[in-house]
Design a protein that fits this description.
The chain has helices spanning 18-27, 47-54, 71-84, 101-106, 127-134, 169-194, 200-207, and strands spanning 7-13, 34-41, 59-61, 89-92, 111-115, 138-145, 155-162. By secondary structure, it is an alpha/beta fold. The protein has a single domain (7-207), classed as Formyl transferase, N-terminal domain (Rossmann fold), CATH 3.40.50. Helix 2 (47-54) links the parallel strand 2 and strand 3. The longest helix has 26 residues, at 169-194. The radius of gyration is 17 Å and the shape is globular. Bound molecules: glycinamide ribonucleotide (GAR). The site of glycinamide ribonucleotide has 15 residues, from helix 1, strand 5 and helix 6.
C-alpha cells in the first residue's frame, strides 16, 4: 500500500514554543500524518524560533511591528509565506495576536488553536488565575478550529486536570501545559488523518461542496 502523504503544517508562534516542540517530536514518527514544514513568529525574540531551527525547520519572523496599524497587510505577508511553502494546515501554538477574517477565511476549516482552558470556560488571557478564582475543580486545555471569534470554534479535543488544594496559577498552569503537549499532537494526528488531500481542486470541493 502506498504511504499516505503527510499534510504540510505551518505553526504560528509568539513565545517559547513548547507546544511547537511537542508537535515536532510527534511528527518525527514516520507514521504521523503531518509534517511541520514552516514556523512563523510575530516576534523576533520568540524562543520557539530556536526550537524550529534546532529541528532544521524553516523559521521566519514576520513582525507585526513592521505593519503598524495594518493587521490585514501583516496577515497578507503571513499568508504569502504559508502558501509559498504549500501549507495545508495551520496550527496556532501560543500565537498571541488576534486574527482578522482575512487569514481565518483563507484557512477556514484548516486552522487549529490550542487554548489553556476547558472552552467555552475562560477564553482570553490569565486562564489559570481565573479558573482558581472561580473555584472550579476541573481545568484543562482545548484544541479547536479557529473561527472569526476569539477562542471559539468547533472543539476537536480537550484534556482535563484536577485543581488541587494550594494550587497557584503557576502550579496549575504547569499541570495544564503537560496535557497540552499530549493533546495537541493527538488532535493534529486525528485532524490530519481525516482531512482529504488539499490539492487546489480538492480544496475548492471541500469549501464549496456541490449538491446536484
Ligand atoms: C500555551 O499554554 C497555549 O495554550 C497558550 O499560550 C501558551 C504557549 O506556550 N495559548 C493561548 O493562550 C492562546 N489563547 P508555548 O509557546 O510554550 O507553546
Amino acid at each position: 500500500m502506498a504511504p499516505v502523504r503527510r499534510k504540510r503544517v505551518g505553526v504560528l508562534i509568539s513565545g517559547r514554543g513548547s507546544n511547537l516542540a511537542a508537535l515536532l517530536a510527534a511528527s518525527r514518527d514516520a507514521a504521523f500524518p503531518a509534517e511541520i514544514a514552516l514556523v512563523i513568529s510575530n516576534l523576533a525574540n520568540a524562543g520557539g524560533l530556536a526550537v524550529a531551527e534546532a529541528h532544521r525547520i524553516p523559521a521566519l519572523t514576520i513582525a507585526h511591528r513592521d505593519f503598524p496599524r495594518d493587521r490585514a497587510r501583516h496577515e497578507a505577508a503571513i499568508t504569502t509565506e504559508l502558501e509559498r511553502h504549500g501549507i495545508e494546515i495551520v496550527c496556532l501554538a501560543g500565537y498571541m495576536r488576534l486574527l482578522t477574517p482575512f487569514l481565518v477565511t483563507r484557512f477556514a476549516g484548516r486552522m487549529l488553536n490550542i487554548h489553556p482552558s476547558l472552552l467555552p470556560a475562560f477564553p482570553g488571557l490569565d486562564t489559570h488565575a481565573r479558573a482558581l478564582a472561580a473555584g472550579v475543580k476541573l481545568h484543562g486545555c482545548t484544541v479547536h478550529l479557529v473561527t472569526e471569534r476569539m477562542d471559539e470554534g468547533p472543539i476537536l479535543a480537550q484534556a482535563a486536570v484536577p485543581v488541587r488544594p494550594g494550587d497557584t496559577p503557576n502550579l496549575l498552569g504547569a499541570r495544564v501545559l503537560a496535557q497540552e503537549h499530549l493533546l495537541y499532537p493527538l488532535a493534529l494526528r486525528l485532524f490530519a488523518s481525516a482531512l482529504p488531500g488539499t490539492a487546489a481542486a480538492e480544496t475548492a470541493a471541500l469549501c464549496n461542496p456541490v449538491s446536484d
